[in-house]
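User: quick one, sequence for these tokens?
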């Protein structure tokens, strides 16, 4: 996720799946062209490539989505949104009482902070950026686990914005 807006009152982080959309489109066009070539020769093997051509749009329908996180001091809220071809969801949480952002490990060792944000990556695994409140309660900023670099970049950006 990259910051798209960073003002004194608002921070917006977005992840747009441009690469996934491009690869899905290229796979669809490529396999559809192969299917047409085989059908033009009178071969039934084109059916196999036709099935592969459909896999790109199916992948995009179920797995490709734009994710955004908006922290707004003026309205005192955090908005976590996901939008895809099947629609979107939006979660709203209060910004008051948020102490910091951390990176938590997802999976067998879930829950505790993975490592300090200014240190090296804590090894392989999946991670999630979370907002931690003054009372210790946490809110996950993504339902989708990501790599250390992305989760740490989100947490660092939020902590910098909170400190400003």
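Assistant:
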């Amino acid at each position: 996720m990259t910051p798209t807006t960073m003002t004194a009152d608002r921070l917006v982080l977005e992840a747009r799946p441009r690469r996934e959309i491009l690869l899905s489109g290229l796979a669809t066009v490529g396999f559809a062209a192969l299917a047409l070539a085989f059908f033009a020769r009178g071969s039934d093997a084109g059916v196999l490539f036709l099935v592969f051509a459909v896999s790109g749009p199916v992948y995009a329908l179920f797995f490709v989505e734009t994710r955004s996180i908006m922290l707004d001091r003026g309205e005192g809220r955090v908005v976590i949104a996901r939008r895809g071809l099947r629609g979107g969801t939006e979660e709203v949480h209060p910004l008051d009482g948020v102490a910091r952002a951390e990176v938590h490990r997802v999976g067998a060792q879930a829950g505790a902070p993975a490592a300090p944000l200014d240190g090296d990556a804590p090894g392989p695994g999946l991670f999630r950026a979370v907002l931690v409140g003054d009372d210790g309660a946490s809110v996950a900023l993504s339902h989708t686990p990501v790599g250390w670099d992305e989760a740490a970049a989100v947490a660092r950006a939020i902590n910098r914005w909170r400190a400003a």
